[in-house]
């Protein structure tokens, strides 16, 4: 019998392949649905991410949101620790961060109330499969322990799976936004 680590690795590999195929066919404007969701939260501190590899690009929606309130991006502090979020602006200077993602040149940390979460795979119940480091799970657990925190998964529709192998420590998404639509799981 396979253990959960191996099952997750196989699910992750399949999801990466689906994401790459979707990314290769990507057309500009995929952040439109994300912009629509964020418009309902103008001024609420939020964090997105700097896209790497074949991740769907949230930057246009983040730039729109930055005109109304604080927007940040994750900065990894160390393995097995929650993320911190540094204030980001569309024109701000960036430096190389861990894992190839850019981060603001000057650290200006704050705690967001909305997280736009990158992912490898998702399911209709709000399950999320990430890269396996647990950064977002630890971060969401920490933030949700302090105040309501909205987790919005942003992905290509092709990243959807019927079901994902999940553990009790996996933090659920409240909403998933794809190029095809908005799934509100709350």
From TrEMBL:
Signal peptide as annotated in the record: none
Family annotation (InterPro entries): FTHF_cligase, FTHF_cligase-like_sf, NagB/RpiA_transferase-like
GO BP of this protein: folic acid-containing compound biosynthetic process; tetrahydrofolate interconversion
Keyword Secreted: no
Domain of life: Bacteria
Keywords: ATP-binding, Ligase, Magnesium, Metal-binding, Nucleotide-binding
Gene Ontology MF term list: 5-formyltetrahydrofolate cyclo-ligase activity; ATP binding; metal ion binding
EC number per UniProt: 6.3.3.2
Catalysis: reaction(s): (6S)-5-formyl-5,6,7,8-tetrahydrofolate + ATP = (6R)-5,10-methenyltetrahydrofolate + ADP + phosphate
Pfam families: 5-FTHF_cyc-lig
Keyword flag ATP-binding: yes
Binding site for substrate: 50, 55
Annotated residues for binding of ATP: 8-12, 128-136
Cofactor(s) required, per the database record: Mg(2+)
PANTHER family: 5-FORMYLTETRAHYDROFOLATE CYCLO-LIGASE, ATPASE INHIBITOR/5-FORMYLTETRAHYDROFOLATE CYCLO-LIGASE
Protein family (similarity comment): Belongs to the 5-formyltetrahydrofolate cyclo-ligase family.
Name used for this protein in its record: 5-formyltetrahydrofolate cyclo-ligase
Organism: Phaeobacter italicus
């Amino acid at each position: 019998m396979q253990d959960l680590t191996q099952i997750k690795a196989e699910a992750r590999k399949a999801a990466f392949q689906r994401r790459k195929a979707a990314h290769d066919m990507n057309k500009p404007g995929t952040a439109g649905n994300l912009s629509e969701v964020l418009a309902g939260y103008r001024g609420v501190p939020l964090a997105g991410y700097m896209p790497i590899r074949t991740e769907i690009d949230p930057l246009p929606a983040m730039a729109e949101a930055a005109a109304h309130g604080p927007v940040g991006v994750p900065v990894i502090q160390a393995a097995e620790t929650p993320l911190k979020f540094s204030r980001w602006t569309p024109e701000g200077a960036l430096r190389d961060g861990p894992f190839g993602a850019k981060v603001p040149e000057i650290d200006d940390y704050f705690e967001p109330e909305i997280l736009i979460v990158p992912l490898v795979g998702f399911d209709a119940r709000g399950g999320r499969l990430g890269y396996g480091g647990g950064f977002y799970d630890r971060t969401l657990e920490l933030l949700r322990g302090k105040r309501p925190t909205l987790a919005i998964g942003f992905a290509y529709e092709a990243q959807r799976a019927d079901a994902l192998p999940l553990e009790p420590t996996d933090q659920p998404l409240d909403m998933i936004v794809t190029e095809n639509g908005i799934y509100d799981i709350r």
